[in-house]
Amino acid sequence: MLPATTVRNKNELVQIHHLNQGNLKQNLTVIEQKQQGFVTWLYSIELLEQMHDLAPSIIVKDGNKVAGYALTTLREASAFHHDLKQMFDNLQQVKYRNKLLSSFCFYCMGQICVAKEYRGKGIVNSLYQKHKEVFGDQYDFVLTEISTANQRSLKAHEKVGFENIYTHLDKMGEWSVVVWDWK
Q1: Which among 66, 145, 170, 177 is least buried, having the fewest CB atoms inside 10 angstroms?
Q2: Model confidence pLDDT, tens digit, residues 68-85
Q3: pLDDT score at 114
């Protein structure tokens, strides 16, 4: 299995951007979306750099090629990421374990994507295990939102150990808010 590591340079961020762009929902057929999953947000290289300045994301590489990524997205990133700000604002009243989410120390996995030729090889689990290794001592859990239309992603997250804590609708569709609790 290919090992996961943290992003270390701009070239890796550029590769994340290209992998992100190639797997956007609007760039895939309906059949590809259903069979392979998809990502919803496009992350510019500038945005990836700003996020990286706060905390490194996790990648898996095959030689010099980024085969998959899982973006580390701290709450502070909402200052320069409009969609993330809206997501955090929407989560203000959500409860987890009978407490408001805001009372926990957590961050978001902003997006996860594995290149088509590497899917089904345990890379999602590897990316998340590295997240836990790097950030587990600092945070109670990692949280993400997944389009309920993306059944492949929902199943992959469930396999890792994420649990659904909330479902909501917005202008882009229905979302499942999932948490992987580390405590």
Answers
A1: 170
A2: 999 999 999 999 988 888
A3: 96
66: closest CA among 15, 111, 21, 113?
15
Asked whether residue 55 carries a pLDDT value surpassing 90, the answer given is yes
Residue 145 to residue 175: CA distance in whole angstroms: 6
Cβ count near 65 (within 10 Å): 13
The three-state secondary structure class of 94 is: coil
Q: 141 pairs with which residues across the strands?
A: 106, 181
Overall average pLDDT of the 30-36 stretch: 90
Pairing status of strand 141-147 against strand 106-114:
parallel
| The model's pTM | 0.94
Query: How buried is 151 (Cβ within 10 angstroms: 0-12 exposed, 13-18 middle, 19+ buried)?
Result: middle
CATH 3.30.1330.30 fits 4-139, yes or no: no
Dist. CA 96–CA 42, nearest whole Å? 29
The pLDDT tens digits for 143-165 are: 999 999 999 999 999 999 999 99
Tokens at residue 13, please? 């961020």
**Hey, where are the domains in the chain?**
4-139
φ and ψ at 75, to 5 degrees? -55, -35
* Chain centroid to CA 70: 5
